[in-house]
Write a structure and sequence with these properties.
Chain B is α+β, with helices and mostly antiparallel strands and 168 residues long. Chain B has helices at 26-33, 89-96, 106-119, 125-132, 143-162, and strands spanning 5-11, 14-20, 52-55, 58-61, 74-76. Chain B folds into 2 domains: 5-80, Beta-grasp domain (Ubiquitin-like (UB roll), Roll), CATH 3.10.20.30; 89-162, DNA polymerase, domain 1, CATH 1.10.150. Chain C is globular and about 85 Å long. The chains are: A alpha+beta (285), B alpha+beta (168), C alpha+beta (772).
Chain lengths: 285, 168, 772
């Protein structure tokens, strides 16, 4: 399982990186960051990129910082960076909780947050986080920079709004208010495996009722997304079993689950109900 | 024709000058170009962990890196664990606790545990088990591997306390 | 033969550190991929991506033209190489079903070798393999062993044979039966999947006219014999060399097409040929196992005593009959009754081919499967009659007073005779160790509080010590160092250490002074390798006898040199001394070896050398036995199963190294757990394999594997060998499918719910939701 031949480029700056991409993207050039998803695919020869643009040497892409009300995650920030909360409050805690579900420790020392986003595997935990929190993806090419909202970014299995000549340079997550209740629940066959279904939920309380609810589901459909029907079932309700079950039921009803020889759509739909409810239970005050 | 690159890999403190295709994986280079065959290939797609080495102190899957990416980094493999005839506490613990049978997964576990225990000598048992679940073993059923790593962790902590300020 | 006991040299029964470990922990092992020869070529096999089809053409021209490629072969290039024969010899009825080294005329499974590329570099070899194109006229894929057979080749269909074993008038008993229980049970396709994939290096040494095969393990002498037949070479001109092996489990070591290809390649291309399998290849090309469907009925009386069992089963053999021929499907019929009395019995097994990877033996072959079937039957009988399954076991288990118990059934070519044991006694000991009544109450309490927790048992017999004979050679050099040369094989199970312990105790030396040679066909003419848990029984017994022979020779020489009667002498820590003067004058074995050199003045008429052979012959296998116990917790919301607790009780007769035995048992358990909950080779309707990577062939990690409590007993030594040992390699795995299935039923309160393993979350959820 050796990869097919490729030309290797190791730019030192973002400018160099996007210029190289401009040259090679049309000739099946790909970005190499953590490599934890790309290299296995290359080993199976499911992908045979003619060029790899290794961005690990670009210092500026290692930036992880708070910019106003956003957490800015640069393209080379590793999963492992999130093991300890990177920001005070619910967001830091949420990311530290989610990261433990991502593969295994040695994968997390190399794999990158942004790499997961760009790869857009439906079972990716970070993609679910991005969809749930309406993250902003910053894409840069030799022609300029643009920001893509999460709801426009994920388009299908391993399919995003990124053009082949664009480098995802950073992802911005909103710093959640201190009084946000967050929950995340994932089901898989073994610890560290791809999620068969997962849910992320959060809300705040106003006079004991849930406001600004977010419910997002991943792993079960071609892309992760917020489920408006589930959120409606929570808005204005008191947190607790009745509302949580209603939201879970709503989510299960509207999802269009993936179906394959091993895992049926029906089972996934069922799981969506369970994981949504459990994510909400975790978000209990 | 894609040109080979001349690179220098630093493995267990020693420099190896090699000439490799960009696509040549780090594990193949360590094994075949640098002759250090202690690091094993179990799956070549990053799941089993038999290829685990330390890269600047962090456990990584060397089957998921290309050799050209590792120039200038400190690579440590199982061959560098022992100090001459003196085995590393982890190696001794694996022997004492019957933590290996066929031995194929062993170097990967040794490097994984070394990396984690050096970074976090006081790691909780729960976290340690989480880390050990990174690698696959098909022979032992893990029980004795866990025992061995726990025992070695104690030894390593004691050693670290006995020599304050010692590096590595 | 009496055993010499030396107070200072008791190694048997001690959990000594392993001799194998030091190089392995240093990363200085020599696994197949670590072996290289100058100027070697790298082989890459091109495999069919169709499950079934006629080969119209294969075009290797682009591959051959790639720089660095030396040759590309298809079946025509090796037309003179016959298909791979069977280990036991020729079986004319199965001739047509053998696998050709490269697919001829048809491809029959995804992974079937069609061409072989030989190149300077493994990366280039893979590039070239990608350039080989083939035109296949697709044919329908047969994917179920219980579907009607179809044509395999002219005049033959995919039903290779029908196995029949049995005794008594089953039909009459069934007709008159007070109660009949009927089940349909399926064991999923899975296999050993060792962490080291296969590898082989063929090297033809023109200077000596010797063909070397490096890498294949388990049965080096058998493989040599098979190769010599296939390639028409004298066996003595083929040397099979085993070095370190990353797990075998029955999968590695059979002769495969790739082993033959590296041999023929090295001879015809004039350079060593190295082949290292990758993981994807391994999962589609190395032997599969386990997949059987059983339709079983039992007639019982109102107390749950079995009156008759009638089993119809389908064995999914995959695309070809490989080296094991009908071993597994045949043994299934013989071993299914296990530890229970069955006054009348009939087993009819359909040995059928499908368009899947060929199957063969995997740890406890036939026993993992039949233990699942038989113990599900026990649970069903218990449920039907409203009695405790363990009471069903008590009423049916062969008692110790009935030993030796003969059953007119065959397994591995011998009739089954249970040699010794107390099955019910071991059950009782296990229940005491578990504090079963208290545990049962706790589980009931937890269930009342809403948890889906449950427990299950399984009782089984194992078989080991397959003969008929094994021999060793022991040589002591002039420094007193001992070499024990065996025809055994090491798969990582601690073979060297165990043999060294036996040798050391028999001879009177420190076990660390014994070098154990194995897997080298040029060092010893005969060997049985390591399989069927036989190494400990056969090779250890031969070693024991050999050690006593060397001891006798040393003492006889020393008696003359020390002017002391032989009966007064003993050997302790490598020194011959007087029993009544342990600190008095002594002679080292090294000195005695010098006195036995051909030019020695004291040699006399003796055969030179402090060395001897040791042989052991046995007519019968031994049947160790045990029980498994599981506590599981089911997540009703997802169908997920967590094994909270696991215990294994096993009577090993005598444990030479208890730590190693426990290690084998715990390791076997983890594999059994995989088969019960996680591992499965599935196919889509076109016959494409769906579990081709470690991301979809799921093996247990630390997180899924609970600690195992091992209750190791030495209650019944085997009467069949001088050390009383029974072997343990397979006991950890045998009962896992059965025990976990039983525990799941208990946890969800649905007796008989589990009829198929692995119990995936989706399947369990469907059971819970009442859809099946």
């Amino acid at each position: 399982m050796k990869p097919a031949p490729f030309r290797y480029h190791a730019p030192k700056t973002i400018e160099e990186a996007v210029e190289t991409l401009a040259e090679v993207a049309g000739d099946d050039g790909r970005v190499l960051a953590g490599g934890q998803s790309l290299v296995p695919i290359m080993a199976f020869r499911l992908a045979k990129p003619a060029h790899l643009v290794d961005i690990n040497g670009v210092e500026a892409l290692r930036r992880l910082a708070i910019d106003g009300d956003k957490l800015s995650i640069g393209a080379c920030v590793r999963h492992a960076a999130f093991h300890k909360p990177v920001v005070d409050g619910p967001l830091g805690r949420l990311l530290a909780k989610v990261v433990r579900h991502i593969a295994h420790y040695p994968i997390r020392t190399r794999g990158t947050f942004c790499g997961s986003i760009a790869h857009a595997d439906p079972a990716s935990e970070w993609c679910l986080v991005a969809a749930a929190l309406d993250a902003e993806m910053v894409a840069r090419s030799a022609g300029g920079t643009r920001t893509i909202a999460a709801r426009d970014f994920f388009q299908g299995i391993m399919t995003t709004a990124l053009n082949e000549n664009e480098l995802l340079t950073e992802v911005r997550l909103p710093i959640l208010p201190a009084d946000t209740y967050c929950g995340f629940y994932e089901f898989n066959r073994r610890a560290g495996d791809f999620a068969i279904a997962m849910a992320l939920a959060n809300y705040r309380l106003q006079d004991g009722k849930m406001v600004e609810p977010r419910v997002a589901v991943g792993g079960a459909e071609p892309l992760p997304r917020r489920i408006a029907e589930a959120e409606r079932a929570l808005a204005g309700q008191a947190p607790g079993k009745p509302a949580f079950e209603a939201a879970a039921e709503a989510a299960a009803k509207v999802v269009e689950p993936l179906d394959d020889a091993i895992t049926s759509a029906e089972y996934r739909r069922d799981l969506v109900r369970t994981v949504t409810r459990r994510a909400l239970e975790q978000a209990s005050p | 024709m894609i040109e080979k690159r001349e690179i220098t890999l630093t493995i267990n403190g020693r420099k190896y000058d090699v000439r490799v295709d960009p696509r040549r994986t780090l594990v193949d280079t360590i094994r075949d170009d640098c002759g250090q065959t202690g690091t094993h290939i179990g799956c070549e797609h990053g799941v089993c962990g038999a290829c685990t080495v330390l890269l600047d102190g962090e456990p990584v899957r060397s089957c998921l890196m290309f050799a050209v990416q590792a120039e200038g980094r400190q690579i440590r493999t199982v061959e560098g664990l022992a100090n001459g005839n003196e085995l590393h506490p982890l190696q001794q613990a694996f022997i004492d606790n019957h933590g290996l049978q066929c031995g194929f997964c062993t170097p990967g576990f040794l490097m994984l545990a070394t990396g984690v225990l050096e970074r976090e000598p006081d790691i909780s048992d729960e976290d340690l088990l989480d880390v050990l679940s990174s690698n696959l073993c098909r022979c032992t059923g893990y029980q004795n591997i866990i025992k061995a790593v726990r025992a070695a962790a104690v030894t390593m902590r004691e050693k670290a306390r006995a020599t304050p300020g010692a590096t590595r | 033969m009496t055993q010499g006991h030396n107070a200072n040299n008791k190694w048997i029964g001690q959990s000594v550190a392993r001799l194998e470990d030091p190089p392995l922990v240093r990363g200085r092992g020599r696994f197949a991929a670590d072996i290289s020869f100058p100027h070697q070529l790298h082989m890459r096999v091109v495999r069919s991506s169709h499950a079934h089809g006629r080969i119209v053409s294969v075009d290797a021209s682009a591959a051959r033209a790639l720089p660095g490629v030396v040759a590309v072969w298809t079946a025509d290039d090796i037309a003179d190489v016959p298909p791979i024969d069977f280990r036991e010899g020729k079986i004319p009825a199965f001739d047509q079903y053998r696998q050709p080294v490269l697919a001829t005329g048809k491809v029959r499974y995804v992974g079937d070798p069609v061409a072989a590329v030989f190149a300077e570099d493994p990366y280039v070899a893979e590039d070239a393999a990608d350039l080989v194109t083939m035109e296949i006229a697709e044919l329908p894929a047969l994917l179920a062993a219980d579907a009607d057979p179809v044509e395999f080749s002219a005049g033959r269909n995919t039903e290779v044979a029908i196995i029949r074993q049995g005794y008594g008038d089953v039909d009459a008993v069934m007709r008159a039966a007070p109660v009949v229980v009927e089940l349909e049970l399926a064991i999923g396709r899975h296999s050993g999947a060792p962490l080291e994939a296969r590898g082989a290096i063929g090297r033809y040494d023109l200077a000596r006219d010797i063909l070397e095969l490096h890498g294949a393990a388990k049965v080096p002498h058998r493989n040599r014999e098979l190769l010599s037949r296939m390639l028409a070479l004298p066996p003595s001109s083929i040397h099979v060399h085993e070095s370190h092996v990353g797990g075998g489990f029955g999968i590695r070591g059979e002769l495969y097409p790739e082993d033959v290809l590296v041999c023929v390649g090295s001879m015809r291309l004039g350079r060593p040929v190295k082949w290292i399998e990758d993981r994807r290849e391994h999962l589609i090309a190395a032997n599969h196992s386990r997949q059987q469907l059983h339709r079983i009925r039992a007639a019982v009386d109102h107390d749950g005593r079995i009156l008759a069992v009638d089993d119809l089963y389908f064995h999914d053999q995959g695309a070809y009959v490989r080296t094991h021929a009908a071993r597994v499907v045949h043994m299934t019929a013989g071993i299914l009754p296990g530890p229970y009395r069955m006054p009348a019995y009939r087993a009819v097994g359909h040995f059928r081919l499908t368009n899947k990877t060929p199957a063969a033996t995997y740890r406890a072959p036939g026993r993992y499967e039949t233990t699942f079937v038989r113990e599900r039957l026990v649970d069903a009988i218990a449920t039907k009659l409203g009695i405790d399954p363990n009471d069903v076991r008590r009423r049916n288990a062969i008692s110790k007073d009935e030993m030796p118990y003969f059953r007119p059934l065959q397994a591995l070519g011998e009739e089954i005779e249970h040699d010794s044991g107390d099955y019910v006694g071991l059950l009782d000991k296990l229940l005491v160790a578990l504090e079963w009544d208290k545990l049962k109450a706790e589980l009931a309490h937890r269930r009342a509080a809403g948890e889906a927790v449950g427990a299950g048992f399984a009782m089984f017999i194992e078989k080991s010590g397959l003969g008929p004979a094994d021999g060793v050679r022991i040589e002591v050099d002039t420094s007193g160092a001992v070499e024990l040369i065996t025809g055994g094989a090491s798969l990582g199970q601690g073979f060297e250490t165990v043999m060294a312990q036996v040798c050391a105790e028999g001879l009177g030396v420190d076990y660390k002074r014994v070098r154990v040679t194995h897997g080298q066909t040029d060092r010893i003419a005969f060997g049985i390798g390591a399989h069927a848990s036989r190494a400990t029984v056969m090779t250890a017994s031969a070693t024991h006898n050999g050690a006593l022979n060397v001891r006798a020779k040393a003492i006889e020489m020393a008696a003359e040199l020390m002017q002391t009667p032989a009966e007064a002498l003993d050997i302790v820590d490598g020194k011959v001394l007087r029993k009544d003067q342990p600190t008095g004058p002594s002679m080292t074995l090294g000195e005695i070896a010098r006195h036995l050199e051909p030019t020695s003045k004291t040699l006399g008429g003796r055969v030179p050398g402090l060395s001897a052979e040791g042989w052991f012959r046995v007519e019968h296998q031994v049947y160790p036995y045990g029980l498994h116990f599981a506590v599981v917790k089911v997540d009703r919301g997802t169908g997920g199963v967590q094994v909270e607790r696991y215990a294994i009780a096993y009577d090993i007769g005598r444990a030479i190294n208890p730590a190693l035995v426990k290690g084998q048992i715990v390791g076997g358990f983890a594999q059994g757990l995989g088969g019960a909950l996680l591992e499965e080779f599935t196919y889509n309707e076109r016959g494409d394999p769906l579990a081709t990577t470690f991301a979809d062939y799921l093996m247990p990690t630390v997180r899924e594997t609970p600690d195992v409590e091992v209750l190791l007993r030495e209650d019944y030594v085997s009467p069949l060998n001088p050390l009383g040992i029974k072997g343990a390699g397979e006991s950890g795995i045998t009962g896992v499918g059965a025990a976990i299935a039983s525990a799941i039923d208990d946890a969800i309160g649905m007796p008989g719910a589990v009829t198929q393993i692995p119990v995936t979350p989706q399947r369990l959820k469907q059971i819970l939701d009442g859809q099946r």
